[in-house]
Amino acid sequence: MRTTNTYLEAELMQQMLAAHEIPARVVAQGVQAHFGGGTPAAVQVDPRDWWTALLLLSPIDDAEDVKPE
Asked: What domain of life does the UniProt record list for this protein's source (predicted)?
């Protein structure tokens, strides 16, 4: 569903989803690319919860960007 460069960030996303009672798991995407870098990881959710999880993990739109017509 969602990939990130650090395993820690993926675990944070998993905790955010768990707070909203959406089951998720973190899957490692390979080995560490270089020293000091994180291990790439992905967060997986059930297809029924996909849209809700996507909305929860997406960036918040700034009110300044929205202009009334």
From this structure: Bacteria
- DSSP three-state, residue 7: helix
Amino acid found at 27: V
d(CA 19, CA 6): 21
The pLDDT tens digits of the residues spanning 15-59 come to 999 999 999 999 888 766 555 557 888 899 999 999 999 888 888
Q: What is the DSSP letter of 41?
A: E
Nearest Cα to 22, choosing from 14, 34, 33?
14
Q: What is the pTM of this model?
A: 0.71
Tokens 């202009």 found at: 67
